[in-house]
Amino acid sequence: MEKESKVITIEDSAIQRFCAGWPCHNFPEGLNLIVAFFDKNGDLVDYEMSNKSDKTLYEFNAYEENPTHNMDEAAISALLSNAQEECRRLELPDGCLPTWVYD
To answer: What's this model's pTM, rounded to 2 decimal places?
Structure first.
C-alpha cells in the first residue's frame, strides 16, 4: 500500500491537555487549533496555529524561512509527534481523504 500525504487537525482539547503537561511550551496565547500537513514520508511540510476566531497566530513552512518565535521547539515537535502517532492507529474508510482530527 502506497503512503499518502495527510493533514492532521489538532483541536483545543488536545492542545490544552498537552500544555498542562508541558507548561513551558510558549505556544501563542489564545491557541485553539493547529492544522499540520505531512508528506508521504511522514515529514512535516507545514502547520498553522490559529485561535477560535480563525485568526492565524503562527505559520510554519519547512521550505521557507520562518519568522522567529518564542515557542519551545521540542514542545511543538512533541505535540505533532503525539498527534501523528494517535492518528496512525485510526483506520479511514475507503475513499476518505487522509485527514485526521486529534482531540
So the answer is: 0.85
